[in-house]
Amino acid sequence: MTIAKRTVGVALGAALGLAAGPAAAQDLAVALGASVTSLDPHFHALAPNNSIAQHVFNNLVEQDENQKLIQGLAVSWSARGDDKWIIKLRPGVKFTDGSDFTAEDVVASIKRIAWVPNSPSAFTIYTKAIKEAVIVDPLTLELRTDGPYPLMPNDLSNFFIISKKSVEAPTEDFNRLTAAIGTGPYKYSDYARGDRIVLERNEGYWDTKPEWKKVTFRLITNPAARVAALLAGDVQMIEAVPTADIEKLKRNPNLSLAQAASNRLIYLHMDHQRDTTPFFTDKAGKPLAKNPLKDLRVRQALSKAINRDGIVERVMEGVSVPAGQLLAESFFGTSKNLPPEKYDPDGAKKLLADAGYPNGFGVTLHGPNDRYINDGRVIQTVAQMWSRIGVDAKVEAMPWATYAAKATNQEFSIFLVGWGSGTGETSSTLRSLLATFNRETGMGQANRGRYSNPELDKVLAEALRTVNSAKRGELLAQASEIGIRDVGVIPLHYEVSTWGLKKGLTYVGRAGQETLAMEVRTAK
Amino acid sequence: MTVFIVRRLMQSVVILLVMSVIVFLGVFAIGNPVDILISPDADQLERERAIRALGLDLPLWEQYFVFLKNAAVGDLGRSFVFNEPALRLIFERMPATLELAFTAVVLSLIVGIPLGLYAGLRPQTVTSKGIMAGSIVGFSLPTFWQGLMFIMVFAVMLGWLPSTGRGQIGSFLGIKSSLFTQDGLAHVILPAVNLALGNAALIIRLTRAGVRETLLQDYVKFARAKGLSSRRVVGVHVLKNILIPLVTVVGLEIAGLIAFAVVTESIFAWPGMGKLIIDSINQLDRPVMVAYLMMIVLLFIIINLIVDVLYSVIDPRVRLQDVKG
Amino acid sequence: MSSPTVTAPAKAESPFRRLVSEFAEDRLAVAGAVVLTIILLIALFAPLISPQNPYDLSKLDILDSRMPPGSKSMDGMTFWLGTDGQGRDMLSGIFYGLRTSLAVGVFSGVCAMIVGMAMGLIAAYVGGRTETLIMRLVDLQLSFPTILIALILLAVLGQGVGKIILALIIVQWSYYARIIRGTALVERRREYVEAAICLGLSKPRIIFSHVLPNCMPPMIVIGTVQVAGAIALEATLSFLGIGLPITEPSLGLLIANGFEYLLSGKYWISFFPGIALLVTIISINLVGDQLRDVLNPRLKR
Question: Are the Cβ atoms of C182 and B263 closer than 8 angstroms?
């Protein structure tokens, strides 16, 4: 009954919004490209859910559009000694139910994150460094850690603060909106699962109030349908514009675009571990006796044979940036000395010959075809380029649903994956992709090629202990150089996200690829 | 008849059990949901915790028995992705799909039977040939292409109809549906036509084939010879005889439409069950996949039963016996 | 086909020639047959007549991608129908795609029909437990959404032409089985079958020479629809990303690939394969339609 009622309300509201048309200048309709599955901000660490939750909940530390850390519900944070962080909270903040925000709410949030049942991916990865949270006074918190932990502010920017009243509320209560009490610029007004989410402005918001009184997020996962909805005027903004349509939308006088280089690197992972690897054969199709990827020259050759500018220009239609390292240079912890590898087919051929493969070999390149921007076409293009240096490259693309498990189980030899750095610095990427895999410490947890380089591990470990951020940045850059020069992975490009808007609206694109209604403004 | 139905229902329980095993095994083979669901930042320990939290650490047969035990009391599991009971999710989406399928079936019958009758009764006219050629075009192009064309033409270029989504919901005699409002109807037209086109073509062809055959039957010739009006011959004798293949097909198609609305729903962002299942497949949300499939199996069993009973009503020569001993 | 009740015209004709001449009565059907023959020849000889081998990645150049019809490649080749996002010549792509689509559609359709007919007839004539078993299997089979069976199968088996054919057979046979059982149930009560039983003809003989021909008209209707459907289904699976390997596109996959360019005005990438698909299916259906009329003993004057 309540569900039905709510659905009616949503549809009614939406219909009125549509019918009212230009009169409702304070309303905004946005089409999202990925499904939002829950309004519980602690249930599933999933980008689309987090993006919606940011409207209603705040973090202690916020990330700006370039993932630089800025004040959120905390006004200051500083390390005290080797195992403490002192967090000063923002005074005068109220939850949407009228209660005051205090340190108790932070403690309750940390507690709920560890408790929330059935989570398929918990936020504890961002709270596990906090061994104890001590309330010093209502607006001061002391977070205790085991040893120095410089990444604390980054972690604090990755989980949401809820009201202590909801500490034991199950996910359903958030989906029913009863427990969804936050401090953010908006509050939920309606939720039709799988269809739309309606937000209403929080008139008591502590910071600058957003321009839109009512925001409707519609879930339109099909890219063409999303573009069509924008063209038809059903929505005023869409995210994830397909690259094929960008040029056309650019020329449309009724629309404008917003773009931002993202924190997502698209790269090739290689099997560094096995002595023989399943998808490398000689030209006749017989398996090779040894894994050629263990030879640095082969890895360099495969990287040099890729024309990154060609991929960016022809496959991505100019909407991506050729990559030479783990994150674009503007991010923290990157190196100034790592330009994208130059396209050099002759050099590649020579390296292959030096490595004992003058006639090349056969290889199957694997990749998903529904995960990253134009992923299926990128791998075909890479294979085309490899065939120019005498490598017989075949391509096998599959849906992410089947691909992910196979990639994690190391079933491939060389394969395409993407990595978005949630913290906006290379430590996340280095730690996940290039550090030696270690089950207990969690290092190299996404190192699906099992690359291992003690030198890199050493520098990285030092960086992760260094609280001084300038020093840490240098160490991270140094670790990146070690990993990239050794071709631990082959970087291809950094994705660029594109938003389509009705003419007269502006949006500052975000590196984290989120779509935030409060950042949409009417052009002056 | 009652015995037949009771027997059929008993068999259905067996079928449901067999299906549950097949579905469970099939869904299990697709891939490990944890790899899809888990945040890329999560480490190995968190991964293992998630596997335990979702009950995936148990051996397959044990997972199956847990499922069976809960299913016996009407609990088909809890969605990994939504953290809500799978059945609730399905029932929440069901009205949207039902109204879409209902509209599509009605449309295809309204269009299909008269056109098919005409084409069968006057096969040589230009109009009939046009109808047949049109029916071929109708099911020739893939649904997704049709759908996008509709959006392109009617929503983007002409701006007559909304491009995607479900409209405002109205209430009539206590039933809530978007078919009762103008906005809702505007939204349902494109996806319903998209879904109906292939079926309408099929119905035209079957009706025409049936009519042409029936017209040559002796009893129709007799009826004509007897001097019955052509209207009565067509309305009673011909129509009754073409109903058998039509009932079969329509029966199958209704259920098919509900199950296969996947493509239409994902193109038109129609928040129905089809969209739910495709999302669940993409995220390997096993409990929802299993629950959805079990619901569809049940639906088909019921529709098939109705079709068989209708058979015997329309054509008494068909025996309504099923199992012997 | 030479049923004794049909009196042939005075001129002595072989049954086949009579069939041909009856078929030729409809000009549209003849046109369909001619077009279908041309399409079959193109499909058969695609490797010989295509300007380029679109399945060989080393022959493609990404710099040639998304060129409009009539453009010239870097090495002087003309792309009469333009190129797709991968730099594939659309004309060659369509020739090869026809080959793949037809192979997939026809082969899976024929196999499914044989399996379905056998099962349907067995069900109708053996009856009892066998019938129950088969028909419940059909129900079971039909209760799975096609796309889901295909997804599960392809997930377990991997991608490839053979695998998608297998998936299509598995999703299609039950349609034939159900329809033929329905028809056969009615047919077996007809006078001619009862007469044949009285004459003491064997069961297989009755089935194959009497019942089966009479079941053919609906089978051909369903069959043509199904072959067309198989091709469209394959396209849909490709659209959902679980069909054929992306390096060896069928017509369906070419359309699906072009789908993303449709709104941006690069119509040729999905338009031309769409036309090729449409022409193919229409000609199959025209031929099938006329065949049905010709093959139906009861429609004879």
Answer: no
